[in-house]
Amino acid sequence: MRKDNKTWRRILDASENLFSELGYTAVTLQDIAAAVDMRHASLYYYAPHGKEDLYIAVMERGFRHHGEGLAQAIADAGDDFRARVHAVAHWFATHPPIDLGRIVRSDMPHINPADATRLIEFSLETLRQPIAAVIREASAQGLVQADDPDFVAMALVGLLQSVHNVPERFLPTQAHRVQAAQACADMLIDGLRVR
User: Fold this and answer.
1) Rounded Cα distance, 144 and 188, in Å
2) In the 8-state DSSP scheme, what is residue 193?
3) Is there a contact between 43 and 29 (Cβ–Cβ < 8 Å)?
4) What CATH number has the domain bearing residue 175?
5) Domain count, the chain
6) Taking all residues of the chain, what is their mean pLDDT, rounded to a whole number?
7) What's this model's pTM, rounded to 2 decimal places?
8) Do residues 60 and 119 make contact, with C-beta atoms less than 8 angstroms apart?
9) 8 exposure class (CB count in 10 Å sphere: 0-12, 13-18, 19+)
10) d(CA 135, CA 137)
11) What torsion do the CA atoms of 82, 86, 89, 94 make, to the nearest 10 degrees?
12) Which has the least CB within 10 A, 90, 140, 185, 189?
């Protein structure tokens, strides 16, 4: 019920902004309450276990959003391998980055180990699976040689996410970021291409 609630969505949006900017340990429930102009104690109605509940909900929502968006971008790109990989590059360049390294190293050690493991697996499933399927299909068609499509998919994710680390003066617009991400994808594709 609470997931359809406008207040719940505001709490998740504020939590997401804070967690992505500061990391799990630096954010307090008071910070989140202040961001949504709510009493600290009122957050427990929406997150009975406190900050960890909010963090898990934010992460699940974010990974689900990326997974669904990637799958749709790939489907919309048609059957051409390069067009599909460019669609993946476009998706990552036009959406806020996911700093998986920071999440795994800095955030996950501070939440329940079972939840951390589940979130890491979910992140890998939602980000890797649609891309690995494209690589597997291209490999089966003889377009690329990829012994481990899952690893190649995650390498591509890491490469594409790095575009967000380039200073704005080098990539001043979203169009420049998309172009850079697609150039990164081309480097990976051409390196895998069967000759």
Assistant:
1) 10
2) B
3) yes
4) 1.10.357.10
5) 1
6) 92
7) 0.86
8) yes
9) middle
10) 5
11) -170
12) 140
